[in-house]
Specification:
Layout lengths: L8 H7 L4 E3 L19 H5 L5 E5 L5 H9 L4 E5 L3 H13 L5 E5 L5 H4 L5 E7 L17 H10 E11 L2 H13 L3 E6 L14 H8 L5 E6 L1
Parallel strand pairs: 1-4, 2-3, 2-5, 3-4, 5-6
Antiparallel strand pairs: 6-8, 7-8
Length: 222
């Protein structure tokens, strides 16, 4: 079902311009989406050269805001393509006075135009859309074309942390990571029934756990 446009959306987005970068492009072709470069200046954005972590598909920002507050010596970039959603995340970060977090409204295809190669030390993929129909498999954020993008962005020793409630997407992701040259560790088929420490619960995660659904998690590295 299509999400209803939030009231005063444009005004609210404008009020978030201090921590929001809006990129509006139509080209979704992997071969042509990044024909130009306009790299973010991390030092200018954050006022330091701290390590950078990136969440792709941040939703309403619950996870990334909590992570940024817990790790003040890390700079966080959160990406979300839907204006209706990212505005809530930006407003949450502003209200909580989080200074080591910026948001980018764009699709993941365009990240190489704005984020320098080998500049991200961790990527988070939390409860990405599973696109269950096979014909849409390449839209999944762990499909090979996206993994090739992440490879370029990842610094030496960087990791991808994925969480999902969707078993099919998790199995697909394991196959795609393995076929793309990644190694896997800390694989969990039921995160909340494991001894994993330090988990930050997302909005979706809390809902799924309350329903008794298992949460799947892994860490991938090169």
């Amino acid at each position: 079902m299509r999400m209803r446009k939030k009231k005063n959306l444009e005004k609210r987005l404008e009020e978030c311009k201090s921590n929001l970068i809006i990129i509006d492009k139509e080209d979704r072709n992997f071969n042509t989406a990044n024909t130009f470069k306009d790299y973010l200046d991390y030092n200018k954005l954050f006022g330091n050269n701290n390590p950078v972590h990136l969440e792709i598909g941040c939703g309403k920002g619950g996870f990334i805001c909590a992570a940024a507050k817990q790790n003040p010596n890390i700079n966080f970039i959160a990406v979300e393509k839907t204006a209706n959603v990212i505005v809530s995340a930006c407003e949450k970060a502003k209200k909580e006075g989080i200074s080591n977090l910026i948001f980018i409204k764009c699709s993941a295809e365009y990240l190489p135009s704005y984020i320098k190669n080998e500049s991200v030390e961790r990527i988070y993929l939390n409860f990405s859309c599973p696109f269950p129909k096979k014909k849409y498999a390449n839209h999944r954020l762990t499909a090979k074309p996206f993994l090739e993008i992440y490879k370029k962005l990842m610094a030496k020793g960087a990791e991808i942390h994925q969480k999902t409630d969707n078993q099919g997407l998790f199995e697909f992701s394991i196959e795609q990571f393995s076929n793309s040259g990644f190694k896997l560790k800390n694989i969990s088929l039921n995160l909340h029934n494991s001894n994993f420490e330090g988990n930050i619960v997302t909005e979706y995660e809390a809902k799924f756990v309350a329903l008794g659904q298992p949460i799947y998690r892994l860490e991938a590295y090169l």
